[in-house]
Amino acid sequence: MLAMDEVESIFDTDFQSDFFSMLRNWHNSRSTDAAWKRVNLALVTSTEPYQLIENLNLSPFNVGEVLPLGDFSMEQMADLNRRHGRPFDPPRLEQLMRLLNGHPYLVRRALYLIASNRITVADLFTQATHDRGPFGDHLRHHLFRLHARKDLIQALRQVILRNRLDDEQLIYRLLGAGLVRREGQSTVPRCNLYAEYFTEHLNG
Fold it and tell me: How far is CA 19 from the centre of its chain?
């Protein structure tokens, strides 16, 4: 078993396509080579890099068994809040849910920042979409990854404005990047934080 955590650290390297193609080739070899059948891969990533891997036939992320982790429910967020010493009172916790929609990394970051007294609750909300705010690194990372992909930028704008996108391949890529979610027949931004931030930063 070869387990790789935080493989998103490779996404922005100049060898990322070769590296992930190699992993896909190892996976494909399992069907024809007895030695490769004994090799198992486990890749852990916070988002799936569909918009960065042009040829999905070379991607290791659309084969094998995918074990997705969903967003937190309000009950799960309340439990985490309790474990952090209840830094958010109930109304503010509901406000956090409205902003982040249970996004695991962002919820955990918010709780850590407040519980460790690195920012106040009021400042967390007022600075949420700022580039130097509590989520700035995370938001800029997504913005940078979208920079050269005008098709995805336009698709994300359409989702934000209309809650609709007709191109299934673009939906698939935005879903894989963790930027949107399905809501019935609609495609909507994954959370209000993303909607607000990208509304401001993709207007060019």
Answer: 21
Interatomic CA distance for residues 49 and 173, integer angstroms: 8
SS3 116: coil
Letter string b/e over residues 72-105, b meaning 16 or more CB atoms within 10 A of that residue's CB: beeeebbebbeebeebbeeebbeebbebbbbbbe
Kindly write down the DSSP assignment for every residue of 123-190, as one continuous string: HHHHTTTSTTSTTHHHHHHHHHHHTT-HHHHHHHHHHHHHS----HHHHHHHHHTTSEEEETTEEEES
| Cβ-Cβ contacts under 8 Å for 17 (sequence gap 6 or more) | 53, 54, 58
Residue appearing with tokens 């997504």: 142
Question: Residue 100: what residue type?
Answer: L
Return d(Cα 16, Cα 65) in angstroms, integer: 21
Q: Residue 196 CB: number of other CB atoms within 10 A?
A: 16
| pLDDT, tens digit (0-9, with 9 covering 90-100), for 119-165 | 999 999 999 999 999 999 999 988 988 887 888 999 999 999 999 88
Q: Measure the CA–CA gap between 188 and 184, rounded to whole angstroms.
A: 10
Residue with tokens 């909507």: 188
How much is the pTM? 0.78
Q: What is the CA radius of gyration of the chain?
A: 19
